[in-house]
Q: What sequence folds into this?
């Protein structure tokens, strides 16, 4: 028997339906994974609402999970039945059992449990490429992170501190400000403040080389106004809606750069995926970055978790137990 959450039509959290589905068989190059934990990410909301288009309907959301290999398809040589594995970026995680391409899976090392792995793969690997590759954070940098108490944000601020940066974290409540301060954020700002003015004060007018923004429409102009000339705005999410802008704004504000990176692009090559995951595993095992799983839900209660996520009631990572 196998159960999954499926979306038959786009809409609110009530469109997430828990139902019995056939047990899948791995095709050549695939493995069958029995999930022990599944991660919740904002991209799951995008597939539920239709902002991101699924290949077909009904769709099983979810991009990240951890579990045990239960069967292997033809041609799979690097994995065997019983291996502990995790992945990110393969749509269809909200299920007890799912098949996934073997080349998208990585083995979970000793010292990392299923809950940690499910919580860190998408968010942690995203944080890795953001601070190591999209913009290589270095000692002496001052950076700003929107939604600093969220899943990616809480990992990103810790990693940036580990790399020697001064971190400005923007959050929505005093409680979240206290949380990110405990993670090492140097300046916790509230969304109700004049963020560019506070950045000018903190940097003595120098402004910032980079801003990390997962909020989207509501913060885009604010982010640009925090940058110094030739600064980089990294837009990696649309929590408040997609961004639309006239490119001439970038010229007017100081010949700025904007990029919209994705994990799938940065880990498209198998070697990059493995290197990114291994870097993440090492920084977590060292204790430099802690994965805070602050909410857990049974997978069948995915709708409740989506409501909490969209209303900004969550902090850190949320994991479904399977």
A:
């Amino acid at each position: 028997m196998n159960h999954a959450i499926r979306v038959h039509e786009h809409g609110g959290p009530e469109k997430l339906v828990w139902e019995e589905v056939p047990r899948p068989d791995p095709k050549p190059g695939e493995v069958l994974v029995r999930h022990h934990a599944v991660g919740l990410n904002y991209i799951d909301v995008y597939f539920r609402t239709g902002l991101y288009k699924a290949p077909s309907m009904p769709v099983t959301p979810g991009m990240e999970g951890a579990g045990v290999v239960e069967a292997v398809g033809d041609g799979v040589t690097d994995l065997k039945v019983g291996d502990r594995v995790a992945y990110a970026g393969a749509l269809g995680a909200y299920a007890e059992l799912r098949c996934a391409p073997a080349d998208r899976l990585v083995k979970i090392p000793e010292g990392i449990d299923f809950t940690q792995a499910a919580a860190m793969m998408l968010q942690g690997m995203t944080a890795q490429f953001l601070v190591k590759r999209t913009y290589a954070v270095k000692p002496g940098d001052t950076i700003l992170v929107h939604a600093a108490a969220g899943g990616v944000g809480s990992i990103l601020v810790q990693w940036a501190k580990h790399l020697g940066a001064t971190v400005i974290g923007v959050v929505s409540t005093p409680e979240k400000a206290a949380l990110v301060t405990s993670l090492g954020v140097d300046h916790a700002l509230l969304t109700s403040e004049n963020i560019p003015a506070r950045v000018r004060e903190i940097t003595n007018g120098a402004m910032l080389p980079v801003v990390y923004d997962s909020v989207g429409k509501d913060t885009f102009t604010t982010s640009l106004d925090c940058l110094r000339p030739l600064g980089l705005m990294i837009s990696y999410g649309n929590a408040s809606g997609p961004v639309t802008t006239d490119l001439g704004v970038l010229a007017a504000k100081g010949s700025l750069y904007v990029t919209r990176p994705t994990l799938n692009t940065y880990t498209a090559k198998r070697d990059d995926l493995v290197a990114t995951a291994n870097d993440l595993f090492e920084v977590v095992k060292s204790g430099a970055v802690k994965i805070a799983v602050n909410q857990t839900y049974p997978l069948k209660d995915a709708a409740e978790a989506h409501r909490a996520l969209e209303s900004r009631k969550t902090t850190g990572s949320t994991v479904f137990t399977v």
About this structure: The radius of gyration is 20 Å. The longest strand covers residues 30-40. The chain has a mean pLDDT of 95. The chain has two domains: 2-121+269-321, 139-260.
